[in-house]
Write a structure and sequence with these properties.
Elements lengths: L1 H15 L6 H12 L4 H7 L9 H31 L20 H14 L4 E2 L5 E3 H4 L19 E3 L4 E3 L4 H10 L4 E10 L11 E11 L4 H16 L5 E8 L2 E10 L16 E10 L1 H5 L9 E8 H9 L12 H4 L7
Parallel strand pairs: 1-5
Antiparallel strand pairs: 2-4, 3-4, 5-6, 6-10, 7-8, 8-9, 9-10
Length: 342
Amino acid sequence: MEQLAAKLENYKKEILGFTPQNAEDVEAFRIKYLGTKGLVKNLMGEMKQVPAEQKRAAGQLLNEFKLLVEERFQSFALLSNTASATIGNTDWSLPGNSLPIGTLHPLSVVRHQIITIFQRLGFAVAEGPEIEDDWHNFGAMNLPEDHPARDMQDTFYIHQNPAWLLRTHTSSVQARVMEQQKPPIRVICPGRVYRNETISARAHCFFHQVEGLYVDENVSFADLKQTLYYFVQEMFGKDTKVRFRPSYFPFTEPSAEMDISCLICGGKGCTVCKHTGWVEILGSGMVHPKVLENFQIDPNKYTGFAFGMGIERICQLKYRVNDLRLYSQNDVRFLQQFTAAL
């Protein structure tokens, strides 16, 4: 034990007095003291010569010595790396240039805003598959095989028999919710949908929708109107005007389309609103009794309303985007404009 303590004291003096001049000296220090055949490992081997009653004290001395050697080596290595990094005209120890921070896609920004508004009204978010069967996409929504309204949907079919397709609207998610849940139901269904259309500035083969469904006792058209009034004011501002126009959808009766006053001209008339002062943003109506019956929901006890809007249309009005193709071209110059929207 005394011999070990004396050796360690001499080695400590040697280590504390050592100053490396270059990277080779640092590596030599590591090999001498911390290598596989280094001094620290050899000293650990001498523990077998220490009497049993002194092994604990000897172990503490050896551990302290090992920590000292490791700390000195780390300090030597850091100084050596810094010195070598400053050789030449570039200081490689300086922090690198910061990389640009990415941002959300404008459609994701608007989607999040829409969901947040309806969540404040108690709507839950529901999602479903993009590859859908004919029943959930059409049949359950009161569109039998010979229904003329199917001509409104230019569908991408995957298999004709049985019919599998890319969903043409997120109403299929509403169908699956009513299939699995009984009233009260209050959900919004955001997602991507597909139509077999020619791609242009005003149309695309895929786009995004948010549809809403509320089914409960004593739900009225007044509830639908007030819900949508609230959404418009939160999304576009308190001064935005709203109007409803009669329309037709197979899954709602009565049905209505909703317009808002043009945000660009303030309702005075421009090319965007076709000089009418109004812009359509969504379709809506009271859930057709036949749709409720398809899911064993008693239409004499329960009523409901539904609505659906295109996220691209809302984004177009909010940020003045005049070409649908810009959303899917991934042009960084276009996407960078929406950093402030977050």
